Recover the amino acids of this structure.
């Protein structure tokens, strides 16, 4: 008999001096047939001896200081660990220790020699310990599932646990840690002789082990294991800090004899018809699951690796995928093609990246059947460094909550993202000051809403978000809020949001209580709106709301944009705010097709500017992949007119022969209230200048009397034939010789 068995026997003898031993056997030969029947009658210091069998019940210690053990406790034989099973039937916790009737399980409480599996609970699915003490000895906690945290063991709220000879493996959690969590208010100790094993667990925050510490008063934490998933500290597997936000490896003493996984420093390949027993180092030997490849691939800052996904659908039921994914820094995920690589998460989120080093790229994927009640991609990063996250070529279809949520210190670049259907929205960008991110070539349609840009700190430079080439149309948001409710695009707090070449049209929100606005600066958020069309949305098109008692004012600068009802931009709240109309402003029908492409003659055509804030450079293409600049200048909106249209387009644009000065025509700045129109082309008899509106209606005909001059000119007083001043908008000036038009030029009138 070894020292460990002698110790157990001695302990049982000591306990028997104070309590009795109660036997449990399913065959009826014991005093009870269920473990909880024995717990109900037990008192402090009693021992419950459980014979082999599979017990389909939750074992609740009821705040009692008792020992519950299999025959492994008395014989030391491992076979009793495997044959004495607590089965949660995928619907309940396995073992619970919580305060009950003001009683807490105290020192001397033990659980010895069980396999605990198939449990399903909110947190601490295998074993939940709160405000109690327990020694967990010679147990196997495996294949348990928590929809929040700790599929294996959770020690929280002042718990004190001692782990000896216990295996924690193959447990999962949806949001946090798969294996073991010891909260910062609890204590945990590992046996240095009878070593534990922790490996193969999975969770999006970290996989195997999390130990919270008080950042202001950190304490050393020693871990002694025979086998762990890795040997050196790796945030993918182990978290040691304040809720993971700050990893304090200097206070972690990790002692591991061997690693469970063999890691590979290179690109890896995954296929829906692959096998996780394969090496994954070539397409011929692809792994099956993305999570399996992510677990084994090395995070290499000097030479980032990539997981390549072949075409097909990746889902839990079809090919054992695990969502949400835990991510590693410096590891890219690249699909073969956005249209053929599909993630079907079957109601789960796709990614929850809380604490990786990021610096990776995610691209070429279609997303379906995401989480209906949570963000489908969530990224968080805290600390002093600002990592970069790149997302390209993603298509989210009919998801029911939101595409992404980004928090704190992350610089993001998104390009070619399509969000459509159901109650889908683009996301939240909650950023620390000094962050700068770019979102371009974005389509959000037939969903719920676009984006909220938030920052609650007023130190340093404002958090900046550039939104370029965004088509945000036909969305419906059902949610109510206070003040001016921003149901579509919102800049909130210490933020600077730049809307550049965006089309924001026909978005709706049925709210009978609050004033509505489609684009809103809230509590100090600033906006620069350039080359954008905001039209046909419910409520106000643009608004400012600094809130009651607000101290941060907002500034909204609008330039070269079409805004419906420019006279109705409300400013409410206690902090001073302002709207600056910087020129090139239109308030008229944008004249767009069903897909929001400008029609021929649309006022959006060539009406934009390249003089953008922060020297922002436009992408080479518009949101549909067409050249971004076609014709004489950049258009207003996300879609560039490409020169196709009605017969009026056959009239040649001749900017070198028609000169209109100034252009745009700002009525308050015209000398004598007139514009000069000059024709430097060929002269002929019966030469005239005609002005048309965007509907093709002729408003004015101006006769050129002296047609023999090399340069012929007329003056226009911005009035039509009836003598009425024309409204702000885009007009076409055409030169006519006899019955034929020779050329035309577009002019913008700003009153």
């Amino acid at each position: 008999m070894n020292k460990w068995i002698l110790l157990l026997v001695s302990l049982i003898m000591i306990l028997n001096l104070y309590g009795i031993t109660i036997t449990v056997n399913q065959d009826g030969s014991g005093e009870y047939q269920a473990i909880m029947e024995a717990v109900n009658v037990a008192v402090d210091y009693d021992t419950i001896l459980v014979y082999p069998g599979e017990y389909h019940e939750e074992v609740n210690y009821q705040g009692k200081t008792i020992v519950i053990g299999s025959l492994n406790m008395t014989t030391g034989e491992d076979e009793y660990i495997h044959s004495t099973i607590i089965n949660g039937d995928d619907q309940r916790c396995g073992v619970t220790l919580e305060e009950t009737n003001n009683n807490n399980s105290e020192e001397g409480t033990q659980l010895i020699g069980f396999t605990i599996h198939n449990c399903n609970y909110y947190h601490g699915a295998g074993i939940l310990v709160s405000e109690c003490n327990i020694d967990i000895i010679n147990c196997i906690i495996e294949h348990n599932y928590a929809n929040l945290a700790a599929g294996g063991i959770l020690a929280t709220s002042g718990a004190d646990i001692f782990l000896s000879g216990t295996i924690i493996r193959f447990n999962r959690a949806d949001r946090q840690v798969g294996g073991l969590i010891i909260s910062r208010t609890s204590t945990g100790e590992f046996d240095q002789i009878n070593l534990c094993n922790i490996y193969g667990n999975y969770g999006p925050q970290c996989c195997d082990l999390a130990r919270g510490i008080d950042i202001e008063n950190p304490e050393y934490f020693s871990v002694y294991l025979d086998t762990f998933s890795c040997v050196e500290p790796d945030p993918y597997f182990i978290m040691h800090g304040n809720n993971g936000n700050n990893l304090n490896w200097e206070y972690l003493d990790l002692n591991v004899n061997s690693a469970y996984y063999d890691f590979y420093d290179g690109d890896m390949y995954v296929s829906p018809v692959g096998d996780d027993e394969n090496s994954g180092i070539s397409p011929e030997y692809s792994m099956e699951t993305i999570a399996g490849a992510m677990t084994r691939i090395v995070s290499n800052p000097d030479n980032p690796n990539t997981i390549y996904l072949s075409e097909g659908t990746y889902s839990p039921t079809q090919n054992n995928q695990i969502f949400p994914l835990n991510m590693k820094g410096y590891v890219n995920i690249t699909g073969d093609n956005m249209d053929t690589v599909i993630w079907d998460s079957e109601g789960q989120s796709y990614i929850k990246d809380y604490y990786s080093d990021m610096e990776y790229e995610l691209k070429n994927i279609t997303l379906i059947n995401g989480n209906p009640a949570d963000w489908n991609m969530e990224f968080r990063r805290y600390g002093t460094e600002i990592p970069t996250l790149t997302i390209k070529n993603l298509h989210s279809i009919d998801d029911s909550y939101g595409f992404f949520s980004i928090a704190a210190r992350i610089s993001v670049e998104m390009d070619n993202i399509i969000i459509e259907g159901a109650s889908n929205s683009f996301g939240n960008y909650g950023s620390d000051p000094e962050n700068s991110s770019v979102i371009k070539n974005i389509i959000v349609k037939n969903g719920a809403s676009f984006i909220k840009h938030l920052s609650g700190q007023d130190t340093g430079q404002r958090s900046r978000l550039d939104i370029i080439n965004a088509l945000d149309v036909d969305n419906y948001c059902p949610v109510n809020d206070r003040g001016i409710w921003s149901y579509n695009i919102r800049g909130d707090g210490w933020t600077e949001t730049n809307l550049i070449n965006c089309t924001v049209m026909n978005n709706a929100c049925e709210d009978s209580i609050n004033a509505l606005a489609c684009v809103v600066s809230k509590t100090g958020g600033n906006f620069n709106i350039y080359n954008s069309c905001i039209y046909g949305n419910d409520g106000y098109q643009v608004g400012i709301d600094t809130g009651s008692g607000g101290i941060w004012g907002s500034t909204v600068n609008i330039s070269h944009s079409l805004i419906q009802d420019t006279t109705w931009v409300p400013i409410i709240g206690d902090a001073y705010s302002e709207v600056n109309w910087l020129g090139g402003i239109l308030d008229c029908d944008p004249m767009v097709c069903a897909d929001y492409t400008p029609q021929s003659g649309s006022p959006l055509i060539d009406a934009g500017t390249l003089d953008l804030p922060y020297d922002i450079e436009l992408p080479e293409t518009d949101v549909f992949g067409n050249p971004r600049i076609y014709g004489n200048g950049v258009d207003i909106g996300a879609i560039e007119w490409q020169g196709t249209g009605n017969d009026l387009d056959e009239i040649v644009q001749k900017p070198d022969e028609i000169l209109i000065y100034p252009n745009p025509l700002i009525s308050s700045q015209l000398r004598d209230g007139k514009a000069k129109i000059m024709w430097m082309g060929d002269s002929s008899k019966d030469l005239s200048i005609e002005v048309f509106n965007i509907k093709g209606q002729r408003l004015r005909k101006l006769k050129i009397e002296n047609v023999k001059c090399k340069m012929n000119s007329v003056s226009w007083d911005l009035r039509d034939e009836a003598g009425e001043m024309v409204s702000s908008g885009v007009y076409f000036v055409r030169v006519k010789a006899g019955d034929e038009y020779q050329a035309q030029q577009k002019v913008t009138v700003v009153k």
The domain at 656-750 is CATH 2.60.40.4070 (Immunoglobulin-like). The mean pLDDT is 88.
